[in-house]
């Protein structure tokens, strides 16, 4: 028997065995010397970021790019990349020392504006002062430290007194050069604004009273329900029943009034018809007597024409 050893044949090559004129052709599969991994190990390896070379059975670390591989496109947008870079650089910025910012004042510039006629409703009297749009272009410049010292001295025990209404009127007339028409118009606007504010305050007070009354009524209802032991649903049912009862009473009263009003009407109509018939009979009797007395004696025997005239007159009078 001619046979060849399996070790002498290369992997993945056919193997021929001849025995008693029977030849068998077998094929040897390629087997690796490395042990096979279980399914669990295969799953763990698939979860790891490892790549294998097709020609060589070696594992490569993450980030390895095959020379013949195609370039891949990132799924992150530019905004996501910039936000990631910003978050990565923020801890570094937090460690840096921040710059100290100082604010300093050197001088105070004062600009003087003109006086004008105001329409403020809170001012006492009928005149109100305000600032106009015109100003003096020449500024008054003062040192800041000196200005603060002078201001502190003036503020100690110093109270600004309100300008009387007469003095305000004088300032407006002689210094602001306001005319009488302007002052009258300002007075009218002040009165109108005061009336509007007064009405608004009255409405607010009325609304507050209404809210107070509603709260008191709700408190009374709650106390009554607590004392009587009735719930809100039972109280609503009671109210509905009382409303239905009052509605039924109203409907019954209307029916009674309608029946009482419809009863006397036919009797009145019958009395009126009887009275009209009696008056017609009396008028016809009087007309007959008058006609018989007015006719001459020789013509009373032939009364056909007079009967015709009488019937026509009565028909006309009846119509």
From TrEMBL:
Domain of life according to the entry: Eukaryota
Biased composition range(s): Acidic residues: 272-281
Composition skew (Polar residues), residue ranges: 32-52, 309-319
Residue spans of biased composition, Low complexity class: 257-271, 282-295
Region Disordered, annotated ranges: 1-60, 193-216, 251-319
Protein name: Uncharacterized protein
Lineage: Eukaryota, Sar, Stramenopiles, Ochrophyta, Bacillariophyta
């Amino acid at each position: 028997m001619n046979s060849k050893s399996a070790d002498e044949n290369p992997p993945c090559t056919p193997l021929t065995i001849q025995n008693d004129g029977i030849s068998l052709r077998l094929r040897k599969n390629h087997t690796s010397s490395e042990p096979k991994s279980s399914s669990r190990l295969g799953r763990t390896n698939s979860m790891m970021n490892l790549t294998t070379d097709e020609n060589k059975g070696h594992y490569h670390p993450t980030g390895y790019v095959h020379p013949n591989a195609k370039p891949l496109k990132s799924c992150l947008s530019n905004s996501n990349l910039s936000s990631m870079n910003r978050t990565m650089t923020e801890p570094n910025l937090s460690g840096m020392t921040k710059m100290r910012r100082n604010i300093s004042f050197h001088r105070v510039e004062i600009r003087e504006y003109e006086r004008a006629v105001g329409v403020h409703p809170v001012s006492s009297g009928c005149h109100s002062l305000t600032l106009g749009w015109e100003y003096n272009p020449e500024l008054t410049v003062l040192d800041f430290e000196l200005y603060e010292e002078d201001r502190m001295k003036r503020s100690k025990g110093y109270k600004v007194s309100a300008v009387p209404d007469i003095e305000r009127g004088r300032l407006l007339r002689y210094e602001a050069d306001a005319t009488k028409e302007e002052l009258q118009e300002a007075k009218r606007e002040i009165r109108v604004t005061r009336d509007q504010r007064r009405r608004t305050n009255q409405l607010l007070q009325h609304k507050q009273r209404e809210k107070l009354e509603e709260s008191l009524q709700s408190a009374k209802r709650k106390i009554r329900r607590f004392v009587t032991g009735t719930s809100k649903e039972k109280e609503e049912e009671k109210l509905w029943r009382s409303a239905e009862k009052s509605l039924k009473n109203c409907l019954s009263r209307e029916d009674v009034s309608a029946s009482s009003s419809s009863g006397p009407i036919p009797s009145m109509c019958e009395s009126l018809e009887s009275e009209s018939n009696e008056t017609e009979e009396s008028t016809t009797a009087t007309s007959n007597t008058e006609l018989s007395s007015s006719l001459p004696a020789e013509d009373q025997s032939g009364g056909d024409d007079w009967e015709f005239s009488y019937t026509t007159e009565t028909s006309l009078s009846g119509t």
